[in-house]
Amino acid sequence: MQPIDEVVLIERLRAGDDAAYEAVVRQHVGAMLAVARRILGQDADAEDAVQEAFVQSFRKIDSFRGQSRLKTWLHRITVNVALMMLRSNRACPAVSIEEYLPQWLDDGHRASANLGWCDPGLVSVEKEETRAIVREMIDSLPDDYREVVVLRDVQQLDTKETAIVLGVGVAVVKTRLHRARAALRGLISTRFGGFAGC
Amino acid sequence: MLTCRELFEFLADYADGELEPAERERFEEHMAVCPHCVEYLDTYRKTIELAAASRQPQDSIPDDVPEDLIRAILASRGPKAGPD
Questions:
Q1: Is the ipTM of this complex over 0.90?
Q2: Is residue A34 a part of any domain in this protein?
Q3: How confident is the model at residue A183 (pLDDT cuts 50, 70, 90)?
């Protein structure tokens, strides 16, 4: 249920009230920019996404049913706009994730030993260089896998919310997420790992 | 006992704390005797942590949203669509 003030604000938006629109923009732009930055990284792209999200929100305001808070609705529109931009802005060809998944023998054992991460310090989350490399690796995943990692592990939506945003079932999200994480792990091992068993 | 390949299919649910108790018991039974899977789980978890951290420090809500952006948003408001 929306607070009374929000109901009034939305009615004013529907009536085309400029002051109401500015109030909504100023109240929500920061959170929407944070969401877009988490998905797109770059400031300029994130700002474009937020601008487009507001345009779409206003255009669709009559279809807002009030079943969720305005903040939630704006968040969802921002995520969708940012995901569309992510798909269209791919900087490099996607990797083939099969190459980075474990290979198995017929008896269910590994076909080869894991590539170990010899020096955990090399892959510290504290290092900006590491974070930048991981961002690039996430961006190199095929769209279906990149989106699910961005929504679940970066954006930290839960599985059900992720399924709603992507328009797929929960089981599909789980399968894609697992394969995406395993491929990302493989990419990190290739970059930072040593020889098997180190 | 689960094979390494079967255990691999449970990894995401285990890492996310979503395994049922009986499945979790089977998972941990394998982990108790398989250093390769222990090592794989450790680095899988570290991968999740790295993914989560990869967009920092931009995660918090910025308190210095450029005024130019706000002006651009206000200026770009298009016409409303009709009701669905």
A1: no
A2: yes
A3: very high
